[in-house]
C-alpha cells in the first residue's frame, strides 16, 4: 500500500526517482544532462530542499527557481513530458493529499515557467493592447 509524502526521505525518493527518469528520457534528458553535466548531486540536493519547503513546510530552500531555466531551448512539448514523468513518478510511489498537492504545484510551475520563457523570448507579443 502506498503512503503519502510525509518526510524528507519521501522527498528524496520522489526526486531521485523522477530525475532518474529525466536523465534517461529521449526528449528532455539531453537538455537536463547538457545543462547540469556532472553537477547532478548538487542539483538533487537543491531539489530536495525545494520540495521539502513546498510540500512539508520545512523552510530549507531559498532562491529563485526560474532564472536557471530562462535561457533553455524548450517548448511546450518539453514541459508536457516533464509533467508526464513527474506525475507518473508520484502516482507510482505515493497517494494522498500531499502527493496530489505536488502534482498541482508542479503543473502550476510548468505553466508559469513556459509563460515566462515565452515572455523573455518574445516580449513584443505580451505588450499588445
UniProtKB/TrEMBL annotation:
Heme binds at residue 69. This is Group III truncated hemoglobin. InterPro entries: Globin-like_sf, Globin/Proto, Hemoglobin_trunc. Keywords: Heme, Iron, Metal-binding, Transport. One of its GO terms (molecular function) is metal ion binding. SUPFAM superfamilies: Globin-like (SSF46458). It holds the Pfam family Bac_globin. The lineage of its organism: Bacteria, Pseudomonadati, Bacteroidota, Flavobacteriia, Flavobacteriales. It comes from the Bacteria.
Amino acid at each position: 500500500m502506498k503512503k503519502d509524502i510525509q518526510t524528507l526521505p519521501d522527498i528524496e525518493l520522489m526526486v531521485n526517482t523522477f530525475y532518474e527518469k529525466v536523465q534517461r528520457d529521449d526528449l528532455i534528458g539531453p537538455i537536463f544532462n547538457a545543462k547540469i553535466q556532472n553537477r547532478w548531486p548538487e542539483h538533487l540536493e537543491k531539489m530536495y530542499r525545494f520540495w521539502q519547503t513546498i510540500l512539508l513546510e520545512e523552510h530549507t530552500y531559498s532562491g529563485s527557481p526560474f532564472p536557471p531555466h530562462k535561457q533553455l531551448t524548450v517548448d511546450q512539448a518539453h514541459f508536457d513530458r516533464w509533467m508526464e514523468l513527474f506525475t507518473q513518478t508520484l502516482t507510482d510511489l505515493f497517494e494522498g493529499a500531499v502527493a496530489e498537492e505536488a502534482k498541482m504545484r508542479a503543473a502550476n510551475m510548468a505553466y508559469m515557467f513556459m509563460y515566462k520563457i515565452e515572455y523573455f523570448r518574445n516580449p513584443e507579443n505580451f505588450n499588445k493592447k
